[in-house]
Amino acid sequence: MTPKTNCEICPVRTRGAFCDLTKDELGELMRARVANTYRKHSVIFYEGNPPMGLFGIWSGKVKLYNHAANGRTQIARLAKPGDLLGYRALFGEEPYAATAEVIEDATICFLDRTLAYSILRRNTGVALRIMEYVCRDLRVAERRMHDLVRMPVVERTAALLLELERDFGEPAPRGTRLAIDLTREEMAEMIGTTAESLIRTLSEFRQKDWIELDGHRVLVKESSALAKLIPQDV
């Protein structure tokens, strides 16, 4: 299914990598890119496959995950509207390091590698923003590795809730609602623990009235209390 999308009125383009293209470049992008609708649980690309181009999220949310040697799944990051997918593999000329799976119905725009390289060569602004994406990924990966090695589950869970609040939080009457539909298993995969340990920790936070739970949804009520759990050197 191909939805109607228009780069000129894209609600997220202004905060993405292609925010300052010239009118001609934007027209070229509109003619070349393909937009498709992906249903929940659809896979956009698989870990280990060769990259064919860039993917940009118009709407919806995506998780990127890989499999460890012990067979466990590790969610590397979550992506939201305005984010790019597949850029590290494309420009590094290497296979995808993770599988990208839709966790909420999404519209994804695809740009083939030829045009992506062409725009990158002609527009230094786009190239710099791609570099920012790569640096952000490296920073997140380093922080997660640090957390897994040094922080217990309670601290990791608090850090995850604050991260989700920052990236997907929506104001609510009694706090901040995390506007993303993650299962407890998926949340556990993000911090390298079991669903049982995560559920137990969330229950402790709820008993302290720091959060509210409604099915998969979480309402953060006391982010300052969660922040106090995290060591200052993290």
Give a verbal description of the structure.
- With 234 residues, the protein is an alpha+beta fold.
- 41% of the residues lie in helices and 26% in strands.
- It has eight helices and ten strands.
- Strands 1, 2, 3, 4, 5 and 6 form a six-stranded antiparallel beta sheet that branches. The chain has a four-stranded antiparallel beta sheet with strand order 7-8-10-9.
- Helix 3 packs across helix 4, helix 5 crosses helix 6 and helix 6 packs across helix 7.
- The chain is globular.
- The mean pLDDT is 84.
User: Biggest sheet, in brief?
Assistant: 6 strands, antiparallel
State the separation between the terminal residues, measured CA to CA. Answer: 44 Å
- The mean pLDDT is 84
Mass-distribution shape: globular
Q: In percent, how much strand structure appears in the residues?
A: 25-35%
Low-confidence stretches are none
Helical segment count: 8
Number of separate strands? 10
Instruction: Give the helix proportion (percent range).
Output: 40-55%
The helix/strand series, from N terminus to C terminus, equals HEEEEEHEHHHEEHHEEH
Radius of gyration: 19 Å
Look at the helices and sheets and give the structural class: alpha+beta
